[in-house]
Amino acid sequence: MTRTRRIALALILLSGVLPVIWGFFPERPIPGGMLDFKGVYYGERCLLQHSDPYQEGEPLRVYQAEGHPLRPAEEGLRQNLTWYIYLPTAFLFIAPFAMLQWGPAHLLWMILMSISLMLAAFLMWEFGADYAPVISGGLVCLVLANSEMVLATGNPAGIVVGLCAAAVWCFLKERFMPAGILCLAVSLAIKPHVAGPVWLYFLLAGGVYRKRALQTLVVTVALAVPSIVWVSHVAPRWTGELHYNLLAVSEPGRNSDPGPANPVYVSGPSMIIDLQSAISIFRDDPRIYNPVSYLVCGALLLVWSVFTLRSQFSPRRAWLALAAVVPLTMLATYHRPYDAKLLLLTVPACAMLWAGGGLIARLALLFNTAGLVLTSDIPLTVLMILAKSLHISTDRLPGQLITDVLMRPTPLILLAMSVFYLWVYVRSRPSVTEPLYSRQ
Length: 440
Prior knowledge:
Blueprint: H1 3-24, H2 35-48, H3 58-65, H4 75-82, H5 91-98, H6 102-129, H7 133-144, H8 148-153, H9 157-173, H10 177-190, H11 192-205, H12 207-234, H13 238-249, H14 275-279, H15 286-310, H16 315-332, H17 347-356, H18 358-373, H19 377-388, H20 397-407, H21 409-427
């Protein structure tokens, strides 16, 4: 290992320790600390007590019955415990934690999240370090050093991202295939809207990778069926209740409302980053911003899918494809910045383009850095503080544009990032199997 690699690895380890300190120890006194894990934990506790977790307010009842008062400042936690919104496929993996008391359960969960994020960062740095170890290390450190919120809230995205990265590493390295299939299957079962684009790429890539994707699907179904049967036995009306819960949390002013009526999640490290949140500034109407978002993202995804089906596989082209689709899927459906830790999968593509030099290299670094910064906890916190001092009217187009750029820039940069990588991906010739750019 060269001196540069040793320094980069040391910085990665240091960057991984910082969010553990900031996210692990302060979470207890923070109102609503571990609120996302509390949502899945007490939903699972409902199921273990043969109670319907999808019934409105049932997880909250269990939470309070176990001696936890709900403070007025914990509005976000109240909503998480009132409407359970995870698919039944996640229950099988949360059950071991829900069988434990809250103390050891949440500590083990946080340890697992920390290890998972560190693993994802290291594996993606290893790929990128062959081309640009310093650039790869800097980008990875930027993500790790801004992972406080995912640890403090306990969102399952912290584990899903690590599982996805491990699966990609196994598939592209052609090593430990059963482990890679299992990792991707578990991530799909817990958060399919996060892991879905990774699975979709391997399905469309063809050859042995399509085989891996289909094997993953089989394992996912095998893991999901027991959970669905279990939930259906305890909560036979769970499909309708889940649909109602999803609508309830998205109502104006609730914590999943992408519009400006949401008083809590309009900016900062808990903001909603899908394209709907940017379009809603111009017209706060789901009948407008949902179709427009689906049209824009659907058109780009169609181009990406067609090219992936027609192009010949190469590892470099695989990284370009993932770098294009990961930010795109953050825009199409409901996501928050902690889901965007999956942007770690774009680091190898940026490193490879940087090694090629020229304008494309500089643009790749620019878009990657901007995308990672504007999905990072500390920059978004600073942006939220600055935004509070601004009083911009959104009645007219100039004010709406300024509000989007200053208060909700994340969807815009993710869209630009996706378009850039899609452009580079499509420019590569499908018949070329050699690396797109030579190493330095």
